[in-house]
Amino acid sequence: MSFQRFNASTFQPCQGFCPGSLVLSIHDVAPSTQETVQKMIDDLRQCGVSCCSLLVVPHYHKKESLTRAPDFVKWLHEKQNEGHEIVLHGWAHLRPVALNEGLWKRLMTQCYTRGEGEFYDLSYDEAREKLKIGKQKLEQAGFDLKMITGFIAPAWLLSREAERAVTDEGFSYTTRLHGVIDLRKAPPIFHRSQSMVYSVSAAWRRGLSLLWNEFLLRRAERKVWPLLRLGLHPPDWRHPAIRKHALAVVSRVMQRRVVMTYAEWMKKT
Ligand SMILES: [Zn+2]
Hints:
The chain has helices at residues 34-46, 70-82, 103-112, 124-140, 160-168, 203-223, 240-253, 262-268, and strands at residues 20-29, 53-56, 59-60, 64-65, 85-88, 173-176, 179-182, 189-192, 195-197, 227-232, 257-259. The chain has 269 residues and is an alpha/beta fold. It has a single domain, classed as Glycoside hydrolase/deacetylase (TIM Barrel, Alpha-Beta Barrel). Strands 1, 2, 5, 9, 10 and 11 form a six-stranded parallel beta sheet that branches. Strand 7 (179-182) and strand 8 form a beta hairpin. The longest helix is centred in the last third of the chain and has 21 residues, at 203-223. It is globular. Zinc ion binds at residues 27-28, 89, 93, 154.
């Protein structure tokens, strides 16, 4: 197995064969998931991965406030110092159910995200307010906001108005299920790259996820996408078959691709 850590300061444009990139993101990083996330990081390190994008929720499920969890904050600073990227991932990761929602909206917000698509249909002002307080919490926890350049909405669901708010709050990029959006340009630039992700809440979803991710991986390898993305969630690690598959994918992909964070990938685009 080969391993190469991308270093933005030494990056050179490819001459001839150019290996693609691999970004590993770990979602829903919060005090209650810290222990599992550390296990995920340890397992990935065994495969040679030294940096992930950690998607942090500042007020997870309205119960876990970043500023009231000093041990978690200390651990998060350690992760950042080790080379992991901190990404803002919503505010509370919850979306209240509204009355009289249509079938499509119910499918997206209740079945697909189980009520966690917080930024799915926010107005510009609502989104901007949540982004502002999210940044404030990170700043109060001692993080340098200049180092936090990405915002990723829970379940990648981001209304157009909310995307505009993300741009106006100064974030350099966001991601959706199907790609990465460079917000530094007007109009924003969409880089196509579907994220691999597992759905683990039922046995049939886990079985289907394994098949679907194999298909996506083969498609990405065939088309030689410049960027391959793998999104992992803490519950994935409760299921040995999913954990084993994810680690096997990482080992396989690292033979041809360079691992980096989203922030590093943005620097080279
Ligand atoms: Zn999430």
